[in-house]
């Protein structure tokens, strides 16, 4: 059996301070120590996974609390997500009041009205997740500061910006706030901003040529990154050497007997900057047919964003193929097992998260559909190719031939920068 190749674990961020003679001495000097974290989520797995990945890399996985910014969902609410959360919620209250009045008005006329959907989380059994209330979090940070030390606040996504920035404004002496993904303006509202390099694509000459001059003032960001901005190649996540080794053990019985090489195919869905449809699915199936002879086995997974039209094309083509297994979407999710046991990956170009995780393994990653991407996604894929992390999937590959590269360690690198920023403030982090 071909051995599993796992990346070597990155150096511990705490070692940057000088090990026993560095951060340990600072602890002895009575510096404020962070031992806990608050994660501000937005209900989207891709965003929350970034925050949880950073918390994990900082050693606070067992010492964090998840709060969530919720929006009303379903029906007309799907057309209101461009509004700020607070405005959306107030409008939702007005709509529910009008709807409630309408039910009374039409009840005697035999009209049947469907109930308005519940807020995000409650209808999905997530009522135990705490609502992200600024006042409560600020009060907690202040009242527990003397006994438990400062509070690390990690947030990700547009809907979390106002919450995280308000917490820092009201409790700046008690918290250290990290905002993941570019907040577009007023970066001084946060202690640290972690964002991919391609978010600064609008400042490049190529991007400037694509935007009419009268619209440029509305395109963000407008300024280059300053010293409290941490640039990454891709998205943060929870996949590290320890997680891969754990997954390799947990999924041993299912994946060890499979014929090698094992090819994992991850299919996402079209996005604003990477549009495609059934044509890409047909291109993928045709190219995959060409490389099957060099594969021992193939595992295919779809994401939550995969349109049914695309999944149906793939399932119809490969649903009964003896070499291929298509995940049916039921738990347990084999994603971590795929990352640990795969010998190579084919991934659609739309997902920064899936590509970032796969590139953290050091194994061959082939991308399909990159030529369909636009704007900042073009820059993202260019960077991946230039660093030797990915290659385009053409259907001419021999999957038995392997290649490698230094694994992408964005999360560990970001965690190191958090430690550095805390040290500059006179604080430290110790799980």
UniProtKB/TrEMBL annotation:
Q: Which organism is it from?
A: Coffea arabica (Arabian coffee)
Listed name of the protein: Mitochondrial fission protein ELM1
GO BP of this protein: mitochondrial fission
Q: Name one GO cellular component term.
A: mitochondrial outer membrane
Coiled coil, from the record: none
Instruction: List the SUPFAM superfamilies.
Output: UDP-Glycosyltransferase/glycogen phosphorylase
- UniProt cross-references to Pfam families, sorted A to Z: Mito_fiss_Elm1 (PF06258)
Q: Which InterPro entries match?
A: Elm1-like
């Amino acid at each position: 059996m071909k051995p599993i190749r796992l990346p070597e674990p990155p150096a511990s961020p705490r070692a940057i301070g000088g090990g026993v003679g560095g951060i340990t001495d600072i602890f002895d000097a009575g510096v404020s120590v962070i031992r806990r974290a608050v994660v501000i989520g937005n209900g989207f797995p891709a965003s929350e996974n970034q925050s949880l990945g950073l918390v994990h890399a900082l050693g606070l996985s067992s010492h964090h609390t998840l709060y969530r910014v919720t929006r009303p969902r379903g029906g007309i609410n799907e057309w209101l997500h461009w509004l700020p959360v607070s405005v959306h919620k107030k409008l939702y209250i007005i709509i529910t009041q009008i709807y409630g009045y309408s039910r009374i008005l039409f009840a005697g006329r035999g009209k049947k009205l469907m109930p308005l959907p519940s807020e995000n989380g409650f209808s999905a059994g997530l009522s135990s997740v705490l609502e992200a209330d600024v006042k409560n979090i600020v009060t907690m940070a202040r009242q527990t500061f003397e006994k438990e030390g400062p509070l690390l606040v990690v947030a990700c996504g547009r809907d979390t910006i106002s919450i995280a920035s308000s917490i820092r404004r009201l409790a700046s002496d008690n918290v250290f706030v990290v905002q993941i993904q570019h907040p577009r303006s007023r970066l001084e509202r946060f202690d640290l901003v972690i964002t991919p390099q391609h978010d600064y694509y609008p400042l490049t000459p190529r991007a400037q040529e694509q935007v009419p001059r009268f619209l440029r003032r509305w395109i963000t960001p407008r300024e280059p990154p300053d010293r409290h901005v941490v640039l990454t190649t891709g998205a943060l996540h929870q996949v590290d050497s320890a997680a891969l080794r754990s997954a390799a053990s947990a999924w041993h019985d299912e994946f060890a007997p499979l014929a090698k090489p094992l090819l994992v195919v991850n299919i996402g869905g079209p996005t604003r900057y990477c549009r495609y449809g059934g044509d890409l699915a047909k291109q993928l199936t045709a190219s995959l047919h060409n490389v099957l002879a060099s594969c021992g086995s193939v595992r295919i997974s779809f994401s939550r964003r995969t349109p049914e039209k695309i999944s149906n094309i793939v399932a119809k083509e490969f649903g009964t193929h003896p070499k291929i297994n298509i995940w049916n979407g039921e738990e347990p999710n084999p994603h971590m097992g795929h990352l640990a046991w795969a010998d190579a990956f084919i991934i659609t170009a739309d997902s920064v998260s899936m590509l970032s995780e796969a590139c953290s393994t050091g194994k061959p990653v082939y991308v399909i559909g990159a030529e369909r991407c636009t704007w900042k996604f073009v820059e993202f894929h260019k960077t991946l190719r230039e660093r030797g992390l990915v290659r385009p999937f053409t259907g001419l590959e021999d999957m038995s031939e392997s290649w490698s590269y230094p694994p992408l360690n964005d999360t560990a690198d970001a965690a190191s920068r958090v430690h550095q920023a805390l040290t500059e403030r006179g604080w430290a982090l110790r799980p």
